[in-house]
Write a structure and sequence with these properties.
This protein has 88 residues and is α/β, with parallel strands linked by helices. The protein has helices spanning 18-28, 61-68, 70-74, and strands at residues 8-12, 36-38, 77-81. It has one domain.
Length: 88
Amino acid sequence: MPPQQRKIVFLHIPRTGGVALESYLYCLRPDDPYWFFSFFGLDSPQNANRVVIESMTRGDKTHLAVRSNVHFQLATVVAGHVSRNHRP
């Protein structure tokens, strides 16, 4: 299944209050497990989607695993973490 084309992406820069905002976004729709996807596992009690996006490269194993995750595919909001050292 291809990922939903329209997503809101929240990139959390460290030390900017992003955890509070990410927690707020997560709590907006607790009845809908597919509304929110976090790279830190907030939509999964087992933290199954915990990945470091800085280590992902398009087409590598981690990238393909995230893209095939049903929570990612159906999510409207995607939240992740980028450090100041991240290089595109």
